[in-house]
Amino acid sequence: MTTSIQTMIQNAEHVTFMTGAGVSTASGIPDYRSKDGLYADKFHGLPPEYLLSHDCLVQQPELLYAFVKDNMYFPDAKPNVIHEQIAKLCNAGRASLITQNVDGLDRQAGNQQVVEFHGNLYDCYCTSDQQSVDWHDYMKSMYHDPDHGVIRPRIVLYGEGIAEKALQQSVQAVEAADLIVIVGTSFKVYPFAGLINYRRPGTQLVVVNNEPIPAGSVTAQYTGDAKAFFSELAGK
């Protein structure tokens, strides 16, 4: 199965990769819903779904700030072979990437064809004057010095919509593909999972993940370590 999927990737005219947290766990960044993931423990007795919500930003911004700062930033993390191989295909003009990840590792890997569907933790701004703020300053304080406005990363919180540009680019990437490869995601979060509904008739759909996922009519599925899969792909 590994060889057949890798052959499909090599022979496709245009591959669109759709990736999730399982890609970055190989770089030491925890996922969300596994037993050791970000959502495993409550913080101040509150569920992460609230702490990462627009309601929390408005009502208790200091809690959102503490949770994000202490649990989501891994500036020393480096791209792994999955990021690197996808970037190589994308930059060769043979692929596109839509990622749920907000860690910026795909851009760090040099990928020039990535849509960060849920935003990027390292892209911060002041909610009062909309000015960009260096993430290092955000790590020091949640308040913007000039106007004492609340700083936030430009990520999609619960209760917020996907940025229109990201949504349009994602739909275009799915429509352009003759092969869609889903990597490292439970594929249960919408509207991300719903993007495959925009694929053209006949577009092949394959999955590289630790466990089977509910992605509808799948052409082929590799159940195992995505890092091992892409390491083998790199050697071909």
From TrEMBL:
A GO term, aspect molecular function: NAD+ binding
Domain of life, source organism: Bacteria
Domain Deacetylase sirtuin-type: 1-236
Pfam family membership, one: SIR2
Record keywords, A-Z: NAD, Transferase
PANTHER family assigned: NAD-DEPENDENT PROTEIN DEACYLASE, NAD-DEPENDENT PROTEIN DEACYLASE SIRTUIN-5, MITOCHONDRIAL-RELATED
Record-given protein name: protein acetyllysine N-acetyltransferase
Designated gene of the protein: cobB
